[in-house]
Amino acid sequence: MKIHISSKKQIIQVLMLFVVPLVLFLVGYNFYTMQAMNERVAESNRSTVYLYKSSLEKDLQDIDLFLANLVVGDTNFQRLRSPMDPLEAHLCSKQIINRYQEMIATKRIIGGMFLFTEPNGLHREAYGGSYTYTVKEQLRSYLEELTGSGEIDRSRWQIYSMGDEAFLLRILGSGGVYSVCAVDLNRSLRPQDSTDPQNGVLLYAAPDGQLLTSQEWAKQEEVQIQWTSDSFYQAGNGQYLAVQQYSEVAGVWFVYLTPYRDLLHHMDFAQLLLLMASIALLVLLPICYYILKRLFFKPMEQLVQTMNAIKCGDLDTKMETDYRVVEFKQLSDTFNGMMEEIKSLKIAAYEKELELQKAQLQYLQIQIRPHFFLNCLKNLYALAQERRFEQIQQMILALSDYLRYLFSDNMTLVPLRDELQSVRRYLLLQQMSASCPPTCDIDADEQLFDFQVPPMSILTFVENSVKHASLPGEPLAIYIKVMALKTEEARYINISISDNGSGFPPEMLEALNQAGKFEYTGQHVGILNVKHRFALLYKGKSIFSFSNLKRGSRIEIFIPEEGDSDDRSCGR
Question: Out of 3.30.565.10, 3.40.50.880, 3.10.25.10, 3.30.930.10, which CATH number does the structure's domain 348-563 have?
Answer without folding.
Answer: 3.30.565.10
